[in-house]
Amino acid sequence: MKKKYISMALMTALAVGTLAGCGSTSSDGNNASSKQQADSGSNTEEGKVINVYSWNDEFMKRVCAVYPEVKKTSKDGTVTTLKDGTEIHWIINPNQDGVYQQKLDEALLNQADAAADDKVDIFLTETDYVNKYTDADADVAMPLKDLGIDPDADLADQYDFTKVTASDVNGVQRGSTWQCCPGLLVYRRDIAKEVFGTDDPVKVGEKVKDWDTLKQTAEELKAKGYFTFSSYADTFRLYGNSISEPWVKPGETVIKVDQKIMDWISTSKEWLDAAYFDKTVKGQWNDDWNKAMGSKSKVFAFLFPAWGIDFTLKPNWDGGDGVWAVTNPPQEYNWGGSYVHACTGTDNPTLVKDIILSVTGNKDNLLKISKNYLDYTNTKSGMAEAAKDSKTYASKFLGGQNSFEYFAPVAEKIVIAPLSAYDQGCVELIQNAFSDYFQGNVDFDKAKANFETAIIERYPEITEIQWP
Amino acid sequence: MKHKRVSYSKWGYIFILPFFVSFFIFSFIPLADTIRYSFYEYYRSGIKEVGPNFVGMENYSSLLASDMLKYAANTFILWIIGFIPQIVIALVLAAWFVDARLKIRGQQFFKVVIYLPNLIMASAFAMLFFTLFSTNGPINGILTSIGITKEPIDFMGSVFGTRSLVGLMNFLMWFGNTTIMLMAAIMGISPDIFEASEIDGCNSIQRFFKITLPLIRPILAYTLVNSIIGGLQMFDVPQILTNGQGSPDRTSMTLIMFLNSHLKSKNYGMAGALSVYLFIVSGILCFFVYRMTNNDDPDGSKAAARKAKRAKRRG
């Protein structure tokens, strides 16, 4: 009998709990909708919620910092309220393992059927997969012209290669970015002093000005027990982002491996065997790589764009400020970049246009971002000013050095590699496949075969892989 | 008198209904869909969907032409490396724990401890080992500081190292589980038999091989087949340890990792065909389990009797 009472009591508790749950949510929902109705009188007929898809809070921070309409952001960083009452909802999914793209793809496939306030309004992409979303046939990223932005007039001060990157095959620009990611060589001053007798960026720059000189320098560093770079993946972007033809030409299903990639493979093998790289570091974004940026490491330099210094190097460095310095890289390159797109079907075109213009096309705002977040921003004239203004733009981490002075000439010379929708897989899988080759686990032909297997698994429509 | 025979059977059906409804919706329909899509070309290219177009058995034949059998061999090797120590240690521990004469103290404590690794999520376990055994990790730190090696050992860079690590992890995670199962089996043997053998002057080694082992054979076989089915689905440990690449040279790529790399491109056709292959293999294995657990002649006495009878008739 007792048992029966207890179970009945539990059941009642459960039922009450469930019902109570229903009650509170439904009343919440009512409140929200009535509030919305009250608000909507004060504005046009556009939606009240702007949904932004992104993989981190980078874009949110920049919008909050420079967009004048921002009123406040909730403490957990998920909702930003604008002055007219519109809410920006930040939907953030991590980039790792393609989670972000999976979630974004699902949302985009449901875009047509979604309720107005659930539609994706803005989404962000990275250079590695921007091409997948700017595809003209897929038409998920709105052409900027349709939004009311004239790229030639409104975004005239942007670096041209960022505009090319965000355009589809017909040359229609479908996105815009606030940052531009020219890369530099970041080196340890203490090691430079010990090996070369000087840590002056200009003199060190001379020693790393091209690949042949850098190789001689690497020999000097090796003699003193230092590694030039941490791993073969560090140099990949310099080769991989200067390929002359896209991995896959539009409309084709043939992967053409560029000669530059083969150069990277042969140089990397040679350098690793010569111990210019630390052979215990395999690739990037792992624990060993992070440790290579610490004070106990024997690694002389890294190749990083502005975000790499601020976002990757700085948190991994355990010593004081002023030990690292930047100088020119052996070859101009671009690494990364976040593109902002207006999503087709958005119910807030006016605000979306306003936000994109404010964050990516307004020189004052861009300079503010440069100052606060050390981004190398997408304004040619602004960056030229920053390069000269060492007082305002000196970096504490770099011991008072003005890194913009070195970024600016690189940015001018960047020729962006032609993109394809297959870049991300190709870049990732070719590094994986040849990792085994560098470490001596497989021979060259086996590594090639492994790349072919892996790439066809990833992209079933690929019919052929051509090697130079 | 008319209402005396009330049928309660409908309540039985009503109570099991939720299971069958949820099984139908969440297991059966996806299963049927998987099989259906395995005959189609159906994947996503970028954000554009390709298919579904009916292609017949093409997915199946192209899988056979791929490295699938190599991955099946990898899976088998990874499984056996973990299984052999697992079954040996589990047998020894189970025999010790149940042996009344050993009177091991703190038995309950040890039983809990050996079972504990099974409670950790496999992926967390793999993560832990990845960090421990990385080239600049603590294991290498210890080895170099006590002077066993000068250079750090690249555990995950060699086929032997990676496979051993996977095997070690599977062993650690599952030997406790197997021990407890075998203990139950050994405890099911009538103590009379052990007593009788002792009186006849049987030593402990003889007792283990002549009495314990033969009598727990059905459970042993069950453990084996169950472990093969589990091994067939091996995924999280090698996936996390090798970052999904099955490195080096795809030698630790298991079948389910292979399946997973097809799902990166949402290739439902190929993944479906691979699943059907796995389904067939698991189905065959399950059939053996079924035969063994429903064995009405566990010690072979009936078969022996039949044989004797036949021999007699012939003679």
Structural features, described:
- The complex is a heterodimer of chains A (468) and B (315).
- Chain A has 468 residues and is α/β, with parallel strands linked by helices.
- Chain A has two domains: 49-180 and 337-386, D-Maltodextrin-Binding Protein, domain 2, CATH 3.40.190; 183-331 and 410-466, Periplasmic binding protein-like II (D-Maltodextrin-Binding Protein, domain 2, 3-Layer(aba) Sandwich).
- Chain A is built from 21 helices and eleven strands.
- Chain A has a six-stranded mixed beta sheet with strand order 2-3-4-1-5-10, with helices on both faces. A three-stranded antiparallel beta sheet of chain A has the order 8-6-9. A two-stranded parallel sheet of chain A has the order 7-11.
- In chain A, helix 16 (363-373) crosses helix 17 (380-388) and helix 17 (380-388) packs antiparallel against helix 19 (404-413).
- The model of chain A is unreliable at 17-43 (pLDDT under 50).
- Chain B has a single domain (51-310), classed as MetI-like fold (Orthogonal Bundle), CATH 1.10.3720.
- The radius of gyration of chain B is 26 Å and the shape is globular.
- Chain B starts with 8 loop residues before the first helix and ends with a helix.
- In chain B, 28% of the residues are buried.
- At the A-B interface, helix 3, helix 13, helix 20 and helix 21 of A face strand 1 and helix 12 of B.
Please supply descriptive tags for the structure shown above.
heterodimer, A: 468 residues, alpha/beta, D-Maltodextrin-Binding Protein, domain 2, 2 domains, six-stranded mixed beta sheet, three-stranded antiparallel beta sheet, 47% helix, globular, B: 315 residues, mainly alpha, MetI-like fold, 14 helices
